[in-house]
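Reminder to self: C-alpha cells first, then the designed residues, so the page reads top to bottom the way the pipeline ran.
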C-alpha cells in the first residue's frame, strides 16, 4: 500500500517505515500523529492549501445524486439565510449581504472540507489520538490489515487515513472527511474479526466519498456563525468602549445607553446562535436521511473485502448504551439491523442466528 511521509511528502518504499529514508523524521502511525500538538498545528496550517480539483468534482457529483437533492436545496437555502443574517447584522442592502454571504459561505466550505474541518469535527465528537499502548498494539495490526485490503479493492481509498477513538461506551464507529475513522471505546469489547468488519464498512464510506456532507453542514455552519459573531462582538465591544470613554462628555445617560445597547446586542447574538444551531440540526438530520442508502453500499464493500459474515455477527449482537450528542447523529444514519443483515445475506453471506 502506498504511503507518504507527512513531512517531505515523498513516497515510502516499504510503507511501514518508522523513519523516513529521505528526510530522516519519524513517520506518523496510522493511529494518529506521534505528537498531537504538532498534528494540530500542521492541520491548522493546511487551511490555505487548495482542495484537489478532481476531489471537488467527485464531491459535487455526490452532492447532486438523487437521494441528496433535498440536502442540495438545503444548502442553497443556507446561503440565503446566511446572507440575511449578514445584511441584518451589518446594515447592508440585501444584494450586498447576498454577495458577502456567498463569499463567507465559500470560505466556510473550503475550511470545512480541509483537514482543519475534520480536526474540528473530531474535537466536537471527542475523538482523540489513541495513546494507550495496549489499545495501539491491538488496533494497529487490525487497522493495517483492513486498510491494505481496502486499498487493493478500491485505489480511491486515501493514502493517509488515520484511526481515532472516543470514550463512548456504545459499539460504534464513523468515518468523516477523507482521512478520519473514529471508533468508540465500546468497540473494543468485540472480537478482532468483528472490529475488522466495522473498519471495512467505514473504509467503504471513504472509498465511495460519502463522508463530507456532514462536514459541509455541521462545520460549515459552525465556521460561518463563528465568523459573523466574532465580527459582531468586536463591533459591539468597540461601541461599548467608546461609550465608556465618552462618559465625561455625555454623562451617565450616555453610559447607560451603551450598557443597554450591549445587553441588547448580546441577546440578539444568543438568539442567532440558537437559530443556527437548530438550522444546522435540521441539516444534519437531512444528511442522515439521505445517507441511509450509502450504508448498504458500505456493507457491500465490507462483504467484498471478506468480512460479510463477521459484519452480520456484529450487527446481530450489537448492544450497549446509546451514543450521545453529535456522535449520536453521526452514527444514527444506519438502516435497521435486520434489513442490513438481509441485504448481506442476499449478497451471499451464509449467516443464520
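Designed residues (353 positions):
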Amino acid at each position: 500500500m502506498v504511503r507518504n511521509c507527512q513531512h517531505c511528502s515523498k513516497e515510502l518504499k516499504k510503507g511501514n517505515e518508522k523513519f523516513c529514508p529521505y528526510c530522516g523524521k519519524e513517520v506518523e502511525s496510522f493511529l494518529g500523529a506521534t505528537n498531537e500538538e504538532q498534528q494540530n498545528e500542521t492541520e491548522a496550517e493546511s487551511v490555505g492549501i487548495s482542495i484537489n480539483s478532481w476531489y471537488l468534482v467527485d464531491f459535487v457529483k455526490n452532492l447532486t445524486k438523487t437521494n441528496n437533492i433535498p440536502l442540495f436545496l438545503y444548502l442553497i437555502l443556507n446561503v440565503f439565510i446566511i446572507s440575511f443574517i449578514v445584511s441584518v447584522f451589518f446594515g447592508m442592502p440585501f444584494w450586498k449581504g447576498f454577495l458577502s454571504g456567498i463569499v463567507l459561505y465559500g470560505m466556510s466550505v473550503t475550511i470545512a472540507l480541509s483537514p482543519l474541518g475534520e480536526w474540528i469535527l473530531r474535537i466536537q465528537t471527542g475523538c482523540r489520538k489513541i495513546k494507550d499502548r495496549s489499545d495501539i498494539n491491538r488496533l494497529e495490526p487490525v487497522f493495517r490489515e483492513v486498510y491494505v485490503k481496502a486499498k487493493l479493492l478500491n485505489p480511491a481509498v486515501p493514502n493517509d487515513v488515520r484511526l481515532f477513538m472516543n470514550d463512548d461506551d456504545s459499539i460504534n464507529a464513523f468515518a468523516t472527511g477523507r482521512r478520519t475513522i473514529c471508533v468508540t471505546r465500546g468497540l473494543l469489547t468485540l472480537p478482532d474479526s468483528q472490529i475488522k468488519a466495522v473498519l471495512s464498512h467505514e473504509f467503504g464510506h471513504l472509498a465511495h466519498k460519502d463522508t463530507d456532507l456532514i462536514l459541509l453542514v455541521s462545520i460549515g455552519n459552525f465556521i460561518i456563525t463563528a465568523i459573523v459573531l466574532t465580527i459582531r462582538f468586536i463591533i459591539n465591544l468597540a461601541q461599548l468602549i467608546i461609550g465608556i470613554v465618552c462618559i465625561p462628555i455625555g454623562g451617565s445617560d450616555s453610559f447607560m445607553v451603551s450598557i443597554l445597547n450591549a445587553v441588547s446586542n448580546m441577546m440578539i447574538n444568543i438568539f442567532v446562535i440558537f437559530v443556527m444551531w437548530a438550522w444546522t440540526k435540521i441539516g444534519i438530520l437531512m444528511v442522515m436521511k439521505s445517507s441511509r442508502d450509502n450504508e448498504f453500499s458500505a456493507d457491500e464493500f465490507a462483504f467484498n473485502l471478506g468480512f460479510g459474515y463477521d459484519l452480520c455477527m456484529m450487527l446481530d449482537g450489537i448492544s450497549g448504551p446509546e451514543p450521545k450528542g453529535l456522535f449520536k447523529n453521526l452514527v444514527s444514519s444506519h438502516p435497521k439491523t435486520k434489513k442490513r443483515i438481509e441485504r448481506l445475506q442476499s449478497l451471499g453471506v451464509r449467516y443464520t442466528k
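Residues 33-53 have pLDDT under 50 and may be disordered.
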